[in-house]
Specification:
The chain has 402 residues and is of the alpha/beta class. It folds into 3 domains: 99 residues, no CATH class; 89 residues, no CATH class; 173 residues, Dna Topoisomerase Vi A Subunit, Chain: A, domain 2 (3-Layer(aba) Sandwich), CATH 3.40.1360. 42% of the residues lie in helices and 12% in strands. The protein is built from 18 helices and 9 strands. The strands form 2 sheets. It has a 6-stranded mixed beta sheet. A 3-stranded antiparallel beta sheet has the order 1-3-2. Helix 15 links the parallel strand 8 and strand 9. Helix 1 packs across helix 4 and helix 8 crosses helix 10.
Length: 402
């Protein structure tokens, strides 16, 4: 890499630091560019080529923004007296910006900073973050909306509105589409009483009303339905309501969570058992389903990387979760050649047993997959017979694969 290429590369690396310094009012200019000049004195042709190239970017010669090249006379035995580049200096940030063709970008950034300080001064500490210049420039087209939403969250008094009903000029999906950036800013500007520090989602953390969380379930056992006072065999209700009902009951209940809807609907009656449809139930919502602590809990998903990752996720919240028909034996006996999707995870799930982890490693790259529908009904019915409830919520039966 010649000297001019080195100067440009290092100037580009210094650009974000220049942006950040301007935002915080700091100034590290003049900046001397560190250069690697090894071997230059021993090669006269290269020496002169480098000197000619440097002259073309030296602002004392070009009159344009750029670095100043400081030379000195060097006496050499081989070539006599020669002019040698001693150091290269950008005297001001304007020289660096002009050299890189970034003056307009810098001006746009500083306008965003000025507007932010005028409309939302509470975000000053966010503006000074290392990542903020890039975040603002990439969000320039929506920045007015970001500031409007931030100001609204800071001053709102009605916490009973859904986000799409907020009195804002932005479109109804704006907050949903920009949660990541908004979360960064809201974390900084909102006082502690307007945040839930333990909130796992954007809505929980910033006290945003969401749709009522629901759970779909079946209770084929008429005796259990009667004991719980539930008139329907299948229904979908708010999680809080079914939680309160179960936790307030003295009934011992077994829970079976099933990912596939056909398998969920076809699952037969088992005494004192609630069958829960897993689709959508598991993603980011397990902590709201503490009623599952009340009894034996079985999970039945496809035998693929995703299914075993959900099983592991289940055990993070509910360590007593058992896998149903999700063993290597079941895979080997009924696999029909189907392939799965490779997992995007770079590490093994923490919540699997040794046998499950062995199975996970076998299928995590998508080599094999067994969907619930591919398991013969006779095998399913035999397994169901062996998990029939024996009268106690903590009963463990041998057919459940671990």
């Amino acid at each position: 890499m010649n000297l001019c290429e080195q100067i440009k590369t290092k100037a580009e690396r210094k650009l974000l630091s220049t942006f950040r310094a301007a935002i915080s009012g700091e100034d590290f200019f003049p900046w001397i560019v560190p250069l690697n000049r090894s071997g230059l004195k021993g090669d006269l042709i290269r020496w002169r080529e480098e000197a000619d190239s440097l002259r073309k970017i030296d602002k004392t010669h070009t009159g344009a923004p750029g670095p100043i090249v400081h030379n000195k006379l060097v006496n050499t035995r081989k070539f006599g007296t020669q002019t040698f580049p001693e150091k290269v200096v950008f005297e001001t940030h304007q020289d660096l910006l002009g050299f890189l063709g970034k003056r307009r970008e810098f001006e746009r950034l500083m306008k965003l900073v000025e507007k932010s300080r005028a409309e939302l001064p509470e975000m000053e500490s966010w503006l000074r973050r290392p990542s903020s210049p890039a975040r603002m420039l990439e969000s320039e087209s929506i920045w007015n909306g970001i500031l409007e939403v931030g100001r609204y969250f800071l001053t709102r008094t009605d916490f009973n509105l859904y986000p799409r009903l907020f009195p804002l000029s932005v479109h109804s999906k704006f907050i949903e589409e920009n949660k990541g950036l908004l979360a960064e800013i809201l974390d900084v500007i909102l006082p502690e009483e307007r945040k839930n520090q333990s909130g796992a989602t954007f809505e929980d953390r910033f006290l945003v009303k969401t749709d009522v969380q629901k759970v779909a379930f079946r209770i084929p056992d008429e005796a259990l339905r009667s004991a719980l006072g539930i008139p329907f065999s299948e229904m979908e209700v708010p999680t809080k309501e079914i939680s309160a009902l179960i936790e307030g009951s003295d009934q011992s209940i077994q829970f079976v969570i099933i990912e596939n809807k056909t398998s969920y609907l076809a699952f037969p009656a088992i005494p004192k058992t609630m069958v829960i449809f897993g689709s959508g139930f598991l993603v980011g919502s397990l902590e709201h389903h503490r009623f599952l602590d009340r009894g034996r809990l079985l999970y039945w998903g496809d035998i693929d990387a995703h299914g075993l990752e959900i099983l592991s996720l289940m055990r993070e919240q509910f360590p007593h979760t058992e896998a149903f028909l999700m063993s290597e034996e079941v895979l080997n006996n009924h696999w029909t050649g189907a392939k799965g999707k490779p997992s995007i995870k770079t590490s093994d799930p923490d919540g699997l047993s040794a046998a499950e982890l062995k199975l996970y490693r076998l299928i995590k790259n998508g080599e094999k997959r067994l969907e619930q529908e591919k398991i013969p009904s006779s095998v399913i019915l035999e397994a169901i017979q062996q998990i029939c409830y024996l009268g106690f919520a903590d009963t463990r039966l041998p057919l459940v694969h671990k």
